[in-house]
Amino acid sequence: MVHRITAVAWMTFRRLLRSRILMAGAILALLVMGLYSGILIAILAAAEEGDQQEVQALVPMFFHLAVAMFGTVSTIMATIIGVTVLRTDMTSGTIFGVLAKPVSRGEYVAGNWLGGLVAVLILWLVFAVVMGAIASGIGAPLGSLHVAIIASRILMAALSLSAALLLSIRFNAWGAAVLSVLLVNGASVVEQVANIMGALKVDVPEKLVNALAFPFPVTNAFDGLSERLMQSDLAPDSLLPAVAHVVDYALVLLFVAYLFFRRLDLNRSSE
Amino acid sequence: MTPLLQANGLSKTYSARFPKRDSFDALSDMTFDVRPGEIFAFLGPNGAGKTTTINLLLGFLNPTRGECRLFGLDPRERRAREQVGFLPENYAFYPAFTAPTLLNYFGRLQGIPAPERLKRIDELIERVDLTEARRRPVGKYSRGMRQRLGIAQALLNRPKLLILDEPTSGFDPIGRYMVRDLLSELKQSGVSIFLCSHILSEVEAICDRVVIIDRGRTVREGTLASVLGTGRGFEIVFRDASGDVSRDLAARGTAIEELENNRRIAVNDEAEAQRLLDQIRAGGGVIVRYQAIGRSLEETFIQDIAGRHTRAQEKVS
Ligand SMILES: Nc1ncnc2c1ncn2[C@@H]1O[C@H](COP(=O)(O)OP(=O)(O)O)[C@@H](O)[C@H]1O
Ligand SMILES: [Mg+2]
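That is the input. Now the predicted structure with magnesium ion docked in place:
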């Protein structure tokens, strides 16, 4: 089973490499890193000899900024990958050649997911290496907290990948992308809307907000994790449950995708 | 012997989803089996339901009613497809990759160990004549080349059963000859073949059993001989240097066809044929050939299908 999943994953990854999706992601990543290091270098250049200490103190803030930007990029990437891998295979008809082989639908879905995840991981790996190099260069190397923050973002990307893959089985790429962003960030959206209403002096009962956010437990799980990391809380007994939650949702969504796909009638829809 | 492939009352209704709740019976109550070592031809005009049947047999679709078995298993089970080679209609490959890369992928999915896999890939690329093109991405292939790669991937695992959907489509005459040659060779080595086609002259030369379908229903089935048997006749080819016999026979109303050096008479009745043979010999003619002739598969096919369609039209009007 494992060797078939890895074979599908490897092929999925190679397909992504050839497509423009990863290229676009890499360019966005470079932009983010260019921006980040540009700002750092500018500050360093402007600083007086004696101010080096203060500049180094700024590094964590810039790190958070860069991670947040890159996190958004990687989540978008994961969503695009998720809504395309399986879907293009179905619409182009290449799926028939693959599933005629002794491969189960479950192995096929898992392989697609894994291949997409590897692509996202590689983007993050490049990001981490470059950021690490810059940070060390100015004498403020990244620590385990930074690694944990990056890891949490990768989890988030994995979650988006699952959601997008699941929705792409039923909806076309655009529909699936929009719905998947909503599914993953629904609670944040509700919260933002409530905040705006609050600012406009419209009273929204908290019960209503909670009820509206209820169908999107995924956001809460991730927010919990982010909050811990922001407070530099690396204690395993508070971090692990939060991590488990995010992983849970990623796997549940992936499993639901499998359930949907398991007995799906495969038609050639390009006809 | 247990059949490799079985369809039992297999039916498929395509139903459109919201907003239009149309449904369409693409296949109704299809029953047949494919036994070890035979070439089984599954014939029908475009839209008859051949591809639908194959998609059910490989587990891509779920039957609305009835069931099918592949090596005795539900085709939706992974293991049922272990000994199958499949060539889809208009095979689609990932266009950016080369033939060896794609074959290697399929070989890995089939669990063929690496050294054997690579050897087999080289062998097959050679066999389907793609050696020159092996470094080119498949997206740049012609239709015939893609089809040949499709055949190569179907043979990768040395299947016991080959399922081919319109294998000669996209081929020039030489390519078609290659396919026929290959199929005969495979049959010799004991491979069973489920061959779907609407090009009958090719099928006729190699198949053992035939099912003809139209609009999702079986129209005719049986061994090739039994399908062709109905409506058979006899052919007499003779030489008649003086032309006396021919004149004599023509005067009595026998239709005589002029061939290059000989003449030919075709009759339906065997007794009549025997009588004519006597007359030709008695008149000094020389019998060159005397044989039973069947209709071609194509004639049978056209008669069956066209017959059904006119009957259907009559019902409507
Ligand atoms: N996904 C589908 N939805 C609705 N009708 C379909 C679908 N696929 C095939 N059909 C219809 O089913 C019939 C049989 O199609 P098919 O099996 O492809 O025929 P064949 O392979 O014999 O040419 C055709 O009339 C076709 O239009
Ligand atoms: Mg067809």
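The longest helix of chain A spans residues 52-92.
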